[in-house]
Each structure stands twice: as C-alpha cells, then as structure tokens.
Design brief:
With 279 residues, this protein is mostly helical. It contains ten helices and no strands. α2 packs across α10, α5 packs across α6 and α8 runs antiparallel to α10. The chain starts with a helix and ends in a 7-residue tail after the last helix.
C-alpha cells in the first residue's frame, strides 16, 4: 500500500485526521514555545497572585503570580519530549528483540520471552516509579523509565508478527536462495510488521504522556524550574476548590492529548490495514 493511499484513508477518518493535526501542532509548539510564550514562566509576580482569566492573562495566574497560559505552552515541551523519547526506547530495543526472538526461536526465544514476561508481570506505574527512584528523580530518568516499561509490549508484538511473517512463502524462498537471517529480517520481516508497530507506537505515545504526567504529579518526574502538566496539577491540587482554573487547564491538555493519540492510533489501524473495519 502506497503512502498516498494510506494518507487518503487517514483523511477519510475525520477524528484521526484532526488528531494528527493537533499532535503535529503540539510538536511545533514544544519546539518554539520558549520564543512564543507571552510571559516569563518562572519569574514570580506576587502582585498578580491567583488572578482569573483576563485580557492580560488569558488563563489566569497561579499561586505565585505566574501566567498559566505561558506555563501550559512550556509544559508541552516536557509532555511531547517525554512521549517521543519514551517510544524511541522500545522501538530501538523492544522491536529488535522481538524480531530476533520470533525469527530465531528455540532457546533464544525462551530466554528473551521469560525476561519480557517477568517485566510485564510488574504493574507499569510501580515499575516506572522503581526505575525512576533507582536512577534518580528527573524528567530524563522518567523518560527512560517509561521507555523501559513499554519495551516488553513492543517486544511481544514484534515477536508475534514475526512468527506470522517468517512462515510466508517469500521468506522460505529467500532462505532457499541462501539469504542470511539479518538480510531477511531487514528485507522481509521489518517492512511487513511495520504497520502494527506504528499503530502501537501511536497508542503508546499518548499513554507515555499520561504516565509522565503521573510521575511528575507524584514528584518523580520533572522538577522545578522545569514545567510539566503533571507538576502544574500537583502544585494546584490544594486549591482545586477555590481556584479551579489552575488545575482544569493542564488537566484538559493531558486529556485532549491522550484522546488525540488514541484516535490517531485507531485511524492508523484502519488506514494501514484495509481488511480492518471499525465497528
């Protein structure tokens, strides 16, 4: 299936296409945020504490007089970087391990899958907290922890897809012609298992952003003066009844981003697999 046909099928799904545009806009904002924020995101202004939305402060100010809209824009950087970096780790580690496990089989497959099963048996948030605690509390270590948590899922998916592809006639023909295992993996396995991997990456991106926000809320992710939607919620939690706008906006940002990732993943699943039909 060509890229143009995939793109046309994706455009036909309005929710998925809107979600794609929304996520691309967030990526752009995460890059240019330092240059477009209307107010200083760190400097305190005690004369403007807890102001409601106005023409000067579109979303109001927090308990230290900082502009919430500006901090929300800067928080996009932590969310997107955490999501993308956390997905890069399982793509670079989990997928190759899954392909090797599924293609070679035998003791190698058993060894890799037992490690994967052991990691999966630990609740994701507890594993992320444990890894972050061991590595040290920081946004980068939280990203690494999230990536490690997602690696087994990608490994299992890649293995399952590889088991299906390796029995195909064109793979058998390549073996008979004398092609090596590495050549077959790059030439036949990876291109044919890419669609489900891409779909999984889209779903995992939104989940990674949610986990990063959770870790930051618990104080295990981004640390001041770094800004994260999670630590914005954590700082505003005690004022939820008196100044709700402080916590509503970062919460909505997380919700919309997670929904966009899920809708995009659903659309990609349909676009990349013509046989798949939505209910």
């Amino acid at each position: 299936m060509s890229f143009s046909s995939i793109f046309k099928r994706l455009m036909a799904d309005r929710l998925a296409f809107i979600s794609l545009i929304f996520l691309l806009m967030l990526i752009i904002v995460s890059i240019i945020a330092p240059w477009i924020v209307p107010h200083d995101t760190i400097k305190q202004d005690l004369s403007s504490v807890l102001l409601g939305p106005s023409a000067t402060h579109w979303l109001g100010t927090d308990e230290l007089g900082r502009d919430i809209f500006s901090r929300l824009l800067m928080g996009t950087k932590s969310a997107i970087y955490a999501g993308l970096f956390a997905i890069l780790i399982p793509l670079c580690i989990g997928v190759p391990l899954g392909i090797i496990s599924g293609y070679l089989g035998g003791m190698i497959d058993d060894f890799i899958m037992r490690i994967v099963d052991g990691i999966i048996s630990i609740p994701a948030i507890l594993l992320a907290l444990g890894i972050t605690g061991a590595l040290g509390i920081s946004l980068w270590n939280a990203m690494i922890a999230i990536g490690i948590v997602f690696t087994p899922q990608f490994a299992r998916l890649a293995r399952g897809q590889t088991l299906q592809v390796r029995s195909e006639p064109y793979v058998e023909a390549a073996k008979i012609s004398g092609a090596g295992a590495v050549w077959i993996m790059f030439k036949h396995i990876i291109p044919n298992i890419a669609p489900p991997i891409i779909v999984q990456a889209s779903f995992s991106l939104s989940l990674a952003i949610l986990v990063e926000a959770s870790l930051s809320f618990l104080g295990m992710g981004a640390q001041a003066p770094q800004i994260s939607w999670g630590n914005m919620i954590q700082q505003a939690y005690s004022m939820i009844n008196t100044e709700p706008w402080i916590i509503i906006y970062p919460g909505m940002a997380i919700m919309l981003t997670v929904l966009a990732g899920n809708f995009l993943g659903d659309g990609l699943r349909t676009a990349l697999d013509p046989k798949y039909k939505k209910d």
